[in-house]
Design brief:
This protein has a domain of 200 residues. It contains eight helices and twelve strands. Strands 1, 2, 3, 4, 5, 6, 7, 8, 9, 10, 11 and 12 form a twelve-stranded mixed sheet that branches. Helix 7 crosses helix 8. The radius of gyration is 20 Å and the shape is globular. It comes from Rhodanobacter lycopersici. One of its GO terms (molecular function) is hydrolase activity.
C-alpha cells in the first residue's frame, strides 16, 4: 500500500441537494429541495446524472426525489461518516488543516504537523475560513450490482452532520452493531427557524426504510448478518481494512477532487453575493442575518 495515500471506499457516484451555477460571472452554490444522483463525470452544464437517478425518480412516480433507499458499508459509525473541521487553500485548492476540535493535522513547509485544534471559532490560524465538513458513503439500494460501490454525500451543514451522527450512533446501539445490515433510507427534511424568515432549511436524515418499523429493520439485519456469516462474508475484516485505509494518509480528499469541493462548499463570492441585496444593506444587522441564513440554506 502506498504510504501517505488515504484509501477511501470505492465511489461510483455523488448524492447532492444542490448544484453550482454561474451568476454574474461568478460560480455559486444553488440550493435545491430534492436529491440528485450524479456520476463522477462533469460536463459543460455540471455533473452528469447517474442512471440510478432516473430509476429512482420513476419509482417516486413524478414526486420530487426526497428519499433514497440505502445500506451502509461498515458497522463502525465513524467509518461511514467522517466529519472534520476543514480548511482549504482557496488558491491551490489543497487541504491545509483538518481537525476534530482537539487535535489537527496541518500542512506546513516541513510536512504534516500534529497540533492542538481549538475549533473554527477560536482558531487564529484559520481566521474564520475553517468549517465543518463531512463525507457519508452509502450503497444505494441493496448493492445487488456492486456491493462495495458507494455514493458519497458531501456536506458542510451542521444540521445534516449532527443528525447523521446521532442516527448512526443510535442505529448501531439499537441493532447490536449491525449497521451494515440495516435496511435504511436517506430522507430530505426541511425546517424553519426564527432566523430563516420562514424559508425552509433542508438537511439530510437517515431513517429505516419506508414501511418498516425499527424492530422489523433490526430483525432483517440479524437475518442478513446470519446469511453473510454463513457465506463466509467477514464484516469485521472489512471494517478493519477500511480503518487501515483511512489511517494511511493525512487528508482524505484527492487533489483532483478538492477544487470541486472548494467551489461548492467554500466559495469566496458567496458571502458577498448573499448580503449585497437592495432589501438588506450589508452594513445592517438584518442584512448580515439574512446573509447568514442564505449561506445556511445553500449548505
Amino acid at each position: 500500500m502506498l504510504k501517505g495515500l488515504v484509501i477511501t471506499p470505492p465511489v461510483i457516484g455523488r448524492i447532492s441537494i444542490g448544484r453550482v451555477v454561474e451568476r454574474n460571472g461568478k460560480r455559486l452554490p444553488e440550493k435545491d429541495d430534492q436529491f440528485t444522483l450524479t456520476s463522477q463525470v462533469q460536463g459543460c452544464d455540471g455533473w452528469l446524472l447517474h442512471p440510478l437517478d432516473e430509476k429512482l425518480r420513476k419509482e417516486a412516480e413524478g414526486q420530487k426525489l426526497r428519499a433514497i433507499p440505502v445500506r451502509l458499508l461498515f458497522n463502525d459509525p465513524a467509518l461511514n461518516l467522517r466529519a472534520d473541521y476543514s480548511l482549504f487553500d482557496r488558491t491551490t485548492g489543497r487541504p491545509v488543516c483538518v481537525g476534530n476540535g482537539e487535535t489537527c493535522r496541518r500542512m506546513s513547509k516541513e510536512g504534516v504537523a500534529n497540533l492542538p485544534c481549538p475549533g473554527p471559532g477560536a482558531c487564529a490560524f484559520a481566521q474564520g475560513a475553517c468549517k465543518a465538513y463531512a463525507r457519508l458513503n452509502v450503497v444505494v439500494g441493496d448493492g445487488d450490482e456492486d456491493a462495495l460501490g458507494s455514493f458519497v454525500l458531501r456536506t458542510t451543514s451542521y444540521n445534516t452532520i449532527r443528525t447523521l451522527a446521532a442516527r448512526l450512533a443510535y442505529f448501531s446501539a439499537s441493532s447490536g452493531g449491525l449497521l451494515a445490515c440495516l435496511p435504511l433510507e436517506l430522507k430530505l427534511r426541511g425546517k424553519s427557524t426564527t432566523m430563516s424568515y420562514g424559508t425552509p432549511i433542508y438537511y439530510v436524515d437517515l431513517v429505516v426504510r419506508s414501511g418498516l418499523t425499527l424492530e422489523q429493520a433490526v430483525t432483517q439485519a440479524r437475518e442478513l448478518d446470519e446469511q453473510r456469516r454463513a457465506s463466509g462474508f467477514n464484516q469485521v475484516a472489512l471494517d478493519k481494512a477500511a480503518n487501515d485505509g483511512f489511517a494511511n494518509g493525512a487528508f482524505e480528499e484527492l487533489e483532483e477532487d478538492v477544487p470541486a469541493v472548494v467551489e461548492e462548499f467554500y466559495p469566496v463570492a458567496t458571502q458577498e453575493a448573499a448580503v449585497d441585496t437592495p432589501e438588506a444593506p450589508p452594513s445592517s444587522l438584518r442584512g448580515k442575518l439574512k446573509g447568514k441564513v442564505e449561506r445556511l440554506v445553500s449548505a
